[in-house]
Amino acid sequence: MSKLTKNQKLAASKIEAGKTYSIEEAAALVKEITTTKFDASVDIDVRLGVDPRKANQMVRGVVSLPHGTGKQVRVLALCTPDQEAAAKEAGADYVGLDEYIEKIKGGWTDVDVIITMPSVMGKIGALGRILGPRGLMPNPKSGTVTMDVAKAVKEVKQGKIDFKVDKFGIVHTSIGKVSFNAEQITDNAKEFVQTLIKLKPSVSKGTYVKSIYLSSTMSQGIKVDPKTME
Fold first, then answer.
1. Taking CA atoms, which of 67, 130, 204, 211 is between 20 and 30 Å from 180?
2. What is the tens place of the pLDDT at every residue in 176-207?
């Protein structure tokens, strides 16, 4: 096991063992304990009382974070020529159709989100084995298959993210950067958790939000009291 650095020891000493923090306290603390030289991401992990193996307990959705994610999201719009100008104006980094389908078939996946139209999904379906494992396959549930490509591009650029519970019942996502102030981190965290609560499956019994942890890239997790997310 590697030894903790001086900064890591100092950061660890600021988190009380066994303590559950309010989201406001956790948002301030995650900034305090992050010692990376780069602008680290702020991540949230929410353990849900669901069994993701059952289709009626799958939790998946989208949320527009009030303060965005702080990330530069590279967007590819796969659309027909009549939608190209609007997609470019909305901020898409790459716009086109057949030429990008061929590039992807050749192994190119240098984007974060792909947005497309229902009418061209037939062409894109063949890319599933390449895009699926990378989480890039467009999906109507995440708003990335739509008639209004420009609107979807704009929303993604402004901080709209999609999420899905994993096989362990945990939803993990980034909700900002350490350079955000504590209030912005708090706002984004609350918006995310409240969206999860709205998506609670009707068949889910008992405690739905079992635990919440806030952390940054390479930092310890800070346990958050779910009651402070309201």
1. 211
2. 999 999 999 999 999 999 999 999 999 988 89
The predicted pLDDT at position 16 comes to 84
Q: The sheet that has 222-224: what strands, in order across it?
A: 170-177, 41-48, 209-216, 222-224
Q: Is 124 exposed, middle or buried (0-12, 13-18, 19+ CB in 10 A)?
A: buried
* CB of 30 closer than 8 Å to CB of 222: yes
Letter string b/e over residues 54-81, b meaning 16 or more CB atoms within 10 A of that residue's CB? eeebebebbbebebbbbeebebbbbbee
Torsion (CA) 83, 86, 88, 90 in degrees, nearest 10 = -130
Least confident of 116-120, 131-135, 180-184, 189-193: 131-135
